[in-house]
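Structure tokens please, single chain.
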Amino acid sequence: MTGAFYDGLAGTYDLMFPDWDASMARQAAQLSEFIPLGARVLDCACGIGTQAIGLAQCGYSVVGSDLSPKAASRAVAEAFARGVSLPAFAADMRALPFVDDSFDVVLAADNAVPHLLAADDVLAALREMRRVLRPGGRLILSTRDYDTIRRERPLSTPPSVGPGRVVWFQLWHWDGDRYELEMFQLHEADSWRVVVSKARYWAITRHELTELAARAGFGYVEWLLHAYYQPLMVAPNG
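Here you go.
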């Protein structure tokens, strides 16, 4: 379901942002506070390049991977159009196609990890991220604020309007601490054509994710709640 969800969004994902390039620059500026100068970065959930392209524009050497081949291909093309290099590959974060100790930083932003619905799958992904990190490297990961969301159990998100007056909103259907998300796109240019896609998430709390990171071998885990648009986990390798 997850790969098909992002394959379907690959052509329109940028329309969720009022100004996608401004969002890329803003997120890169926030993330670069935690990425050393000259670092080689793997964005292992790169999507169409929202974080990876911005970091490449800041001068970092960035490689992307994503479960969606269509999203990874678009990330390469969008980076090229902006004059930066972004090699990107289709890959599952539980089986990364890179040799050990390849990167200084591994990034998994924008609520990517909670697509993994079982603790064993999250643990497998975290172990892969640690495997491809060099000693002393750093994992940077962001999720929704599930500590709050698990208490409030929202049923929808507020609508937002992107370029071309594309309206976006989500409906959430809960099953314990997992939920199915229905993503609605309303395209005015096509007489309000409606496109609906679905994905599933684990509303994993910061404590649960911290425990799994420790089991994967990461050192002290720090959560930063106001440094990025989502809660940000930073964990050293070792």
